[in-house]
Amino acid sequence: MQSQINQLKLMGPVILNAILKSLDSYSNMESDATARDTKTFAFQAIGLLAQRMPQLFRDKTDMAVRLFDALKVEAQSLRFIIQEATISLSSAYKVC
User: Fold this and answer.
1) Which InterPro entries match (predicted)?
2) Residue range(s) defining the domain that contains residue 40
3) I need a labelling partner for 18 at 20 to 30 A (CA). Which of 8, 39, 49, 75 fits?
């Protein structure tokens, strides 16, 4: 288990960067099945990364801004997933 966590610590920034690039490759107006599936996966992955690696997001308040913006502009069908990612991300900003 510890080796998996160490691998995630090494690969987390790379994974996050790839996720963000995949989101950036689609406009907010695209609503075909591939765009929806990609965005769904990307927002879910951001939420999972925020849960497992909160330190990855602590200095990245732009991620919170990005998720709140997505709540405004993305299709209704994606909003629940974005809300879940936002909730997961909120724990990353808690001061211990």
Assistant:
1) Ecm29_N
2) 1-94
3) 75
Which CATH number fits the domain that encloses residue 39? 1.25.40
Give per-residue pLDDT as tens, 69-94: 999 999 899 999 999 999 999 988 88
Which tokens is 22 given? 């995949």
Long-range residue pairs from 52-61, CB within 8 A, at least 24 positions apart, any chain: 52/5, 52/8, 53/8, 53/9, 53/12, 54/91, 54/92, 54/94, 55/92, 56/12, 56/13, 56/16, 56/92, 57/89, 57/92, 57/93, 58/92, 58/93, 61/93
Is residue 28 within 8 Å of residue 53, measured between CB atoms? no
Half-sphere CA count of 2, side-chain side, radius 13 A: 0
